[in-house]
Design goal:
By secondary structure, the chain is α/β, with parallel strands linked by helices. The chain has a single domain, classed as Rossmann fold (3-Layer(aba) Sandwich), CATH 3.40.50. It has helices spanning 17-34, 50-58, 109-119; strands at 4-6, 9-15, 41-46, 65-75, 82-87, 97-105, 125-133, 146-150, 156-157, 173-176. It has a 6-stranded mixed beta sheet with strand order 5-4-3-6-7-8, with helices on both faces. Helix 1 packs across helix 2 (50-58). The mean pLDDT is 94. The structure holds guanosine-5'-monophosphate (5GP). Residues 48, 102-110, 155-157, 161-162 line the site of guanosine-5'-monophosphate (5GP). Guanosine-5'-monophosphate binds next to strand 6, helix 3 and strand 9.
Length: 180
């Protein structure tokens, strides 16, 4: 694999397609064991998680459902921070075993805001599957139940992740080359 240029930035290979697929198959094996007979529902968060969710789901051998949501953030009326809402949640999560599928947990802010909203639906259980995690960027600690890779606090693209719209279709994960 060679260096890659996307828009104005330079990226270097970080995780190969083989490494990603091998790890995903291990994650799926664990989920298959944990959810045997429980008919879990996977909720994948668009856009970034679409490829990861597809590859993970292809490796799920037990009965399971999947649905996709988009998170939109807007300024709340009173609060100073942004409020996150889910668009497209078309499954009743009440009493269900729910697995959130996320591309990357960075600061943890997104899930920190969104998880309590999901809890309102009273799922039987709620777990997180994330392909990537940057512990050094974590502001809101999130428990990740199924984690692909722990990575350094550097911007990555590929495998569903974009830089300003581009790079999602790359089969590997590339890391930003930081120039002094
Ligand atoms: P958090 O709320 O945990 O800080 O951020 C989560 C979201 O930020 C991810 O779902 C992803 O869309 C985006 N994000 C965080 N780090 C990266 C990164 O290194 N590359 C890309 N392309 N997106 C990122």
């Amino acid at each position: 694999m060679e260096h890659l240029r996307v828009h104005d930035k330079e990226f270097t290979p970080y995780l190969s397609e083989k490494e990603i697929q091998a790890r995903i198959s291990e994650m799926a094996a664990q989920i298959n064991r944990d959810y045997e007979g429980k008919k879990p529902v996977f909720i994948a968060i668009l856009n970034g998680a679409f490829i990861f969710a597809a590859d993970l789901f292809k490796n799920i051998r037990i009965e399971a459902e999947i649905s996709f949501i988009k998170l939109a953030s807007y300024k709340g009326v009173k609060s100073t921070g942004k409020v996150i809402t889910a668009i497209g949640l078309d499954v009743d999560l009440h009493g269900r075993e729910v697995v959130i599928v996320e591309d990357i947990v960075d600061t943890g802010k997104t899930l920190h805001q969104f998880l309590p909203q999901l809890e309102h639906n009273h799922p039987a259980s709620l777990r997180i599957a994330a392909l990537l995690h940057k512990p050094d960027a974590m502001v809101h600690p999130i428990r990740i139940d199924y984690l692909g890779f722990t990575i350094p606090n550097k911007f990555v693209i590929g495998y569903g992740l974009d830089y300003d719209g581009l790079g999602r279709n790359i089969r590997e994960i590339y890391q930003l080359v930081e120039k002094p």
